[in-house]
Amino acid sequence: MMKFFIAASALLVVAAAPALAQDRTNRGMMRYDANGDGFVDRAEWAAGQEARFRQLDTDKDGKLSQDELFARTPAAGRNVVPDDRQVQRQARFFRELDTDKDGFVSKAEFLAQTERNFARCDLDKDGRINTAECRQALQRRPADKARLER
After folding, report:
1. Bridge partner list, 106
2. Angle, to 10 degrees, between the axis of helix 107-121 and the axis of helix 131-139?
3. Digit-coded pLDDT (tens) for 134-147
4. DSSP labels for 58-117?
5. Domains present along the chain, CATH in parentheses
6. Given a cut of 60, is residue 66 above it in pLDDT?
7. What is the mean pLDDT of the segment spanning 5-12?
8. CA distances to 14, 18, 55 from 21, in Å
9. Which of 37-41, 85-89, 100-104 has the lowest mean pLDDT?
C-alpha cells in the first residue's frame, strides 16, 4: 500500500511539473509574452497594460481612483491593511501618475507610465524586454542611468 502511495505521489509531481513551470512564466511581466518567445515586445506590453487598466477600472468609468489602482496591492508582511509607510508611497505614486491633478488616473496617464516602465527596462533598446533585463535595469543606481543616457 505504501509503495502505491509513493508511486501515485511521484506520478502527480511529474504530471504537475509542466503546469508549475508554465505558472512561473505567467507571473510578473512575462505574463504578457503572448507569442511565448521569452520576450515581451512593445505590442505585447501595450496590449497587456490595456487589459490591466480595464481590470483595475472596476466601476468602468474609464479612469482609476486611488482605491481602484491599489485594491490588488498586497499589504506589507502578513497584514491585511497596508501600513502607514505603504499608504504614503501609494499616495505619492498616485499623485505622480495623476498629471492633470483631477484626482483620477486616466487611461492615457496610466499608459504613459507603463510606457516609461517599458523604456526603463529595455536596456539594449531593441524593443523587447524580459525578466532578467528588467531586473538589471531596476538594480541600476541613478548615476548608472545618467551615464547610459549620454
Report:
1. 63
2. 90
3. 999 999 765 555 55
4. TT-SSEE-HHHHHTTPPPSTT-SS--HHHHHHHHHHHHHH-TT-SSSEEHHHHHHHHHHH
5. 2-149 (1.10.238.10)
6. yes
7. 37
8. 11, 5, 25
9. 85-89
Give 1's DSSP letter.
Answer: -
Cβ-contact 140, 121 below 8 angstroms:
no
Q: What is the pLDDT of residue 75?
A: 61
Using N-to-C axis directions, what is the helix angle for 107-121 and 42-56, rounded to 10°? 140
Length of the chain: 150
Distance in angstroms (rounded) separating the CA atoms of residues 105 and 64? 5
Around Cβ 110, how many Cβ atoms within 10 Å? 21
- What's this model's pTM, rounded to 2 decimal places? 0.72
Phi-psi region of 13 (alpha: psi -120 to 50; beta: other; left: phi over 0): alpha
